[in-house]
Write a structure and sequence with these properties.
single chain, four-stranded mixed sheet, 7% strand, Glutathione S-transferase Yfyf (Class Pi), Chain A, domain 2, 9 helices, 52% helix
């Protein structure tokens, strides 16, 4: 795919009945799926939904995904997809011409490894930081704050490990940007990870800024973080 071209128009009510349906909200991980759908030039209908917004399609989201996590996607075939990494893998396999999963088996293997690394070791820590009360039986605010700070330290350590293991050559996904770039650029926006990386892994931080400048990424970020 030509990474310098603008993404096709997506989202809103213009998408037909056979389009993808994406459940998400502004400033959330649903931006990952939006970037990937645009990259694959797939129209989608966006449904405003999250677990924390009363004025959203919360019950519709709950029926599809009991964890009420976003992004949640319904495919044109009616199948439900959850987990950002799994959605990226689905799109990469369904639309190989977009090269989300690289240009060789070796690249694909490392991209899959990186996606699971971020999901298991970085995204998971953000959940603890946002909801420390879920990870301790203590009701003491100081104890909950300790859980939060411990998770933040682990998050930053895990990003250091990721940066060391996945250098941009020139992109995280290989010769062209792909799924790993999309997930890393969004998940690294939270919980102080960018500021930490700017200080401790400046080359990796610079790579994230280059990813943000890609037209498909920049357009979605402008909508989510105006």
């Amino acid at each position: 795919m030509n990474t310098s071209s603008a993404p096709s128009q997506s989202g809103g009510d213009a998408a037909g009945p056979a389009a993808y349906v994406l459940y998400g909200t502004q400033g959330s991980g649903s931006a990952i799926a939006e970037i990937a759908l645009a990259w694959c030039e797939q129209p989608y209908r966006l449904v405003h939904a999250s677990s924390w917004e009363d004025a959203s399609a919360r019950e519709e989201l709950r029926q599809l995904n009991p964890l009420m996590q976003i992004p949640t996607v319904r495919t044109p075939a009616g199948e439900v997809l959850t987990e950002s990494a799994a959605i990226l893998m689905h799109l990469g396999l369904r639309f190989p011409q977009a090269r989300l999963l690289g240009q060789s088996e070796a690249q694909r293997d490392q991209i899959l490894r990186g996606l699971v690394f971020i999901a298991a070791n970085c995204y998971s820590q953000i959940t603890i930081i946002d909801y420390p009360e879920r990870f301790t039986t203590s009701e003491d605010p100081a104890a909950r704050e300790a859980v939060k700070q411990g998770a933040r330290q682990r998050l930053h350590l895990h990003w250091e490990m990721f940066a060391d293991q996945f250098p941009g050559r020139p992109w995280l996904s290989g010769e062209v940007p792909g799924a790993l770039d999309m997930m890393a650029v969004i998940v690294s926006k939270w919980s102080g990870a960018r500021a930490h990386l700017a200080q401790h892994r400046p080359d990796f931080h610079a790579l994230l800024k280059r990813i943000e400048a890609l037209p498909q990424v920049a357009a979605v970020q402008a909508r989510h973080w105006p």
